[in-house]
Amino acid sequence: MRGSAEGNSEPGCAWTGDLHGHHQIHRCQDAAWLVEQLEKYVADYLLGLGFKPGSVCVHIQRSWPVISEPGQLIGRHHHPNAHLSAVYYLSGNGSGKCGALRLFNPNPLNELIPGMAVGGQGPLEASAARSISHHDVAAHAGLLLLFPARLDHAVLENCSDNTRFSISFDLVLTAPPGPTSAEYLPPHPSLWDPLRQDGNLMP
Questions:
Q1: Burial (CB count within 10 angstroms: exposed 0-12, middle 13-18, buried 19+), residue 88
Q2: Disordered: where is this region (predicted)?
Q3: CA 106 to CA 124: how far, in whole Å?
């Protein structure tokens, strides 16, 4: 699948399948068991956030493998095309040496004045729990992690002697099939009609 490529175009960056034409892993028969687990975890995740059962429909938009050789990392980014992201680790021992996932705090709860948590001589203790700027999650084989797609995240350098393997997912939330009056939920894709560039409906 990876061929001769050892990483992405940026020096030191891990190889991510979505940039090399491999972004529909969930449609492979060998991934059926993982999709089944993802369905269960997403349902529990949404319930935990307070979503009413059956109030949304969750779609896998894309999924791709990530291969990180020793010394490689992935820079800070987020996924504006999706609502929910997930990663499943195929390797890792929980030590963090093979590259932890860093989730950045977009808005510290105690930052009452925007920007006051940044810079020297500010009024906030850097060690205060609510001042935390990020949280690191160590890769562990079998771990399935969900987080909001809008959340900035990065993958720290693989400082181990082993290659780290994982599979990432982008998920989109819409209203269930059928007409909806939910103002902030996109209608179900079955109600969408694509337009050609000349403005006519696709046949």
A1: buried
A2: 180-203
A3: 16
Q: How many domains does the chain have?
A: 1
- Whether 189 maps to a domain, the answer reads no
Domain range for 156: 24-40+63-106+128-173
Which CATH number does the domain housing residue 87 bear?
A: 2.60.120.620
- 88 in a domain, yes or no? yes
Q: For the segment 89-107, what is each residue's pLDDT rounded down to a tens digit?
A: 999 999 999 999 999 988 8
Using the predicted structure, report yes or no on whether residue 186 has a pLDDT greater than 80.
yes
Q: Is residue 90 part of a domain?
A: yes
pTM for the whole structure: 0.86
Could you tell me if 161 and 52 are in contact, meaning their C-beta atoms sit under 8 angstroms apart? no
- Between the CA atoms of 173, 175, 181 and 187, what dihedral angle is there, to the nearest 10 degrees? 90
